[in-house]
Write a structure and sequence with these properties.
Blueprint: H1 3-7, E1 8-13, E2 16-21, H2 32-47, E3 53-58, H3 69-73, H4 77-83, E4 107-111, E5 114-116, H5 118-124, E6 128-132, E7 136-138, H6 140-144, H7 149-157, H8 161-170, E8 174-175, H9 176-181, E9 187-189, H10 194-205, H11 210-230, H12 237-240, H13 244-254
Parallel strand pairs: 2-3, 3-4, 4-6, 5-7, 6-9
Antiparallel strand pairs: 1-2, 7-8
Helix pairs in contact: 5-7, 7-8
InterPro entries: ClpP/crotonase-like_dom_sf, Enoyl-CoA_hydra/iso
GO molecular function, one term: catalytic activity
Protein name: Enoyl-CoA hydratase
Length: about 260
């Protein structure tokens, strides 16, 4: 395996493909290489003719703490301008992780621990979301001074309604049980039981003809993509990463201190 392949691994057991975030010492935070590695492993699953259902999960104490602040959000101003924002060279790859797939196989997100920031968007773009009972979600973009509208749109698509309004405006954390109650996710498993629960669901899916399953997946993803595009999701995001407030929030996080008062510019 190359270093990039180590960051996100892929293996198949029977008809189930396991895509695993593998940076546990950093709570599976996404740096540039992790984003590209995830794209590659998802494509590998899509192209694996023997794999019919995928399970996306994270190794260690968390599914993912979101973007790697030090590597992605503390780029200097010139880099932010040159690369088009914190996503850098991945701007065309994120956040629509499944765009470009041709086989439309269902992917179950089996999450636990922390699901923060861009990890929320990645998990909710999966076709089914199972969270362990200890899972905590947070839209970190609001507190970080970044655009969070793309994830708000996904929650609206999933039927989260006014709950999405609250957690996006406040940036507060919310539990797996809250997420389930408001339609953000599909299922809550016992603590540590998220992967067995995902495997149980996968076995049920595998009892159906694969092409009919894939037709449903294709329809769902097409409608989600149209929903996001209809909201003009990338317009404001292109501006907020250049603000003083964003820079201060990212620095405060990296320096482990409270942010200075925000100035609105």
């Amino acid at each position: 395996m190359t270093a990039e392949e180590d960051l996100v691994t892929y293996e198949r057991k029977g008809r189930i493909g396991y895509i695993t975030l593998n940076r546990p010492d950093k709570l599976n935070a996404f740096n540039d290489d992790c984003v590209l590695a995830l794209k590659d492993r998802l494509w590998e699953f899509d192209q694996d003719e023997e794999a019919w259902v995928g399970i996306l999960n994270g190794r260690g104490r968390a599914f993912s703490s979101g973007a790697d602040v030090r590597q992605r959000q503390l780029r200097n101003r010139d880099d932010l301008i040159k690369q088009g924002g914190p996503s850098g060279r991945n701007a065309t790859h994120h956040p629509i992780m499944f765009e470009g797939h041709v086989n439309w196989k269902p992917i179950i997100a089996a999450v636990h621990g922390y699901v923060f920031g861009m990890a929320v968007g990645i998990s909710l773009r999966c076709d089914y979301v199972i969270a362990a009972a200890d899972t905590i979600f947070e839209i970190t973009e609001t507190r970080r001074g970044l655009y969070a509208g793309q994830y708000w749109s996904i929650m609206q698509f999933r039927g989260a309604g006014t709950f999405a309004d609250e957690v996006f405006l406040t940036g507060r954390r919310f539990s797996a049980e809250e997420a389930l109650a408001h339609g953000v996710i599909n299922e809550v498993a016992g603590e540590g039981g998220h992967i067995p629960a995902a495997e149980g669901l996968a076995e049920k899916i595998l009892k159906n003809p694969p092409l009919s399953v894939r037709a449903v997946v294709r329809a769902r993803r097409w409608h989600l993509q149209q929903h996001e595009r209809n909201h003009g999701l990338f317009y404001e995001r292109a501006r907020l990463h250049m603000t003083e407030d964003f820079r201060e929030s990212a620095l405060a996080f990296a320096e482990k201190r409270p942010p200075k008062p925000y100035v609105g510019r």
